[in-house]
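Reply to dn_fold:

You asked what the input looked like. This is it:
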Amino acid sequence: MRFEKAFKLMKKGEKVKLPSWGGYWYWDDEKQTVIIHTKDGEELDIRETQRVEYTLLNICSDEWIIADAQNCPQLGGEATFDFGEALKYLKRGFRLKRKMWIEEQYIWLQDKIIMTNICGVNMNWIASHSDALAEDWMFAE
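and this is what came back:
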């Protein structure tokens, strides 16, 4: 959903997030502001953000969802995302995996997409149809 709708839901008491986030945002009625609840459990007023460009880019997203106990680590769930988001994170240097993969198995980007398999061996990786259509991508670290 677009941020406009997410903001209206926050004003009604909902917590919202982007799919890959471990934390969430919510509206604090007393302070009359958005509170950022981070993946580490810290809270800060959105007006205190040190990464203004990042915060504004997030606000421009149309992928906002309601944060709940299934999709938000800070509420007891797991943050997962689709392959399109996975590619963005690979380009930013993150190591990723499918939820169904074992912990030692993940992919990362060097000059090609590399997979580290269960034996710790690095090899070139090509996404299967099911990998490309999957919505259970997550951070490996």
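The two ends are 27 Å apart (CA to CA).
Hope that clears it up.
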